Amino acid sequence: MAVYTKIKKYELVSFLKLYDLGRLVSYNGILDGIENTNFLVITEKGRFILTIFEKRVNPKDLPFFMKLQEHLSNNGFACPIPIYGINKKIVNSLSKKNAIIISFLSGKQIKSALPNHCLQVGQMVSNFQKINKSFNKFRKNKLSLNEWKKIFNKCLKIKNHKYLHLILPMKDELEFLNKSWPKKLPKGIIHADIFKDNVFFKNNRLSGLIDFYFSCNDYYAYELAIITNAWCFNKNGTFKKQNFKNLLSGYKKNNKLISNEIKNFNILLRGAAMRILVTRLHDQLFHPDGAIVIPKDPLEYYNILVWHQNNSVF
After folding, report:
1. What is the number of other CB atoms lying within 10 angstroms of the CB of residue 19?
2. 11 Cβ partners below 8 Å, 6+ apart?
């Protein structure tokens, strides 16, 4: 979450007339995250989240994301649900951009992941995958290896910046991944963005998952790789082995890694690290003027990538 689009009170009041949510009480921008503009909106009828879609979200994908959240919620999974307007539409327009209002999910993100948190995250993603086997919609992963290469090539146009020492290693890694990426692994719907700022806890108990705007069909083990990098490493690239053990233990609630997933897991981990490394580099080099958001440091995921190049989690 972040704030790229600033809105005035009268604009929000007008927008809320599309919904049966009562009078606006207050609203505040949410600065966590990096992809879309988000506000906490309080009305007479409670707390809600307003999301204005920016950057990488294709408007054509919004129905998939909305239906996915409805499907999960209808099956007992803790996540926000989209609020329909009086016009029976979920997606409406604000500041000439697509915008939605979703229910408020209680809880807070954690700053440092402990083994118990990872156990619960493993159980959650296991349940997520089980529930979504009955979800009959499909969305291709539009932030896959080919897109990483396009984003990296865009970054090459900037010739003077403090991350120049990363360019050659990233180029070499992308070439390796292009040759080595597995062709056939178990797949289905994944969230693809289960980072600490998208998982809420209350009293150290997991209370829900947010931000479904990268969800797609891809390898289940790739989802686990993304989570491993996000939850099982310190910011300096140190591997937290017990976190990983607990993550796997929770994941085995409904799933079991097959031998081919284990065989290719290091490559998936390297790819999951490269995905974040290249997008963070892009966001550092192409930071919009006036955006109220702090781009995250690419070096964190470069350190994780280097660890995977020299070690195995198994």
Report:
1. 18
2. 94, 95
Token pair, residue 223, equals: 């989802």
Which residues are paired to 276 by β-bridges? none
Residue 79 carries which DSSP code? -
83 burial type by CB count under 10 A (0-12 exposed, 13-18 middle, 19+ buried):
middle
Q: How far apart are CA 63 and CA 193, in angstroms?
A: 18
Contact 50, 101 (CB under 8 A): yes
pTM over 0.85: yes
- Report how far Cα 266 is from the mean position of its chain's Cα atoms: 21
Whole-angstrom distance, CA of residue 1 vs CA of residue 21: 22
Q: Is the dihedral of CA 198, 200, 205, 207 positive or negative?
A: negative
Pick the closest to residue 269 from 179, 202, 177 (CA basis): 177
pLDDT at residue 58 in the model: 86
Domains and CATH numbers, the chain: 9-103 (3.30.200.20), 115-310 (3.90.1200.10)
Q: Are strands 216-219 and 187-190 parallel, antiparallel or unpaired?
A: antiparallel
Closest C-alpha among 237, 257, 227, 261 to residue 118 = 227
DSSP string, 189-209: EE-S---GGGEEEETTEEEEE
Mean pLDDT of 190-210: 96
At residue 180, the 3 state secondary structure works out as: helix
Indicate the angle between helix axes 241-251 and 115-131, nearest 10 degrees. Answer: 30
User: Is the C-alpha dihedral spanning 59, 107, 231, 115 positive or negative?
Assistant: negative
Q: How confident is the model at residue 138 (pLDDT cuts 50, 70, 90)?
A: very high
Helices (H), the chain: 9-16, 62-74, 115-131, 145-155, 167-180, 220-231, 241-251, 259-285, 298-310
Query: Taking 50 as the threshold, does the pLDDT of residue 1 lie above it?
Result: no
Alpha-carbon Rg of the chain, whole angstroms? Answer: 20
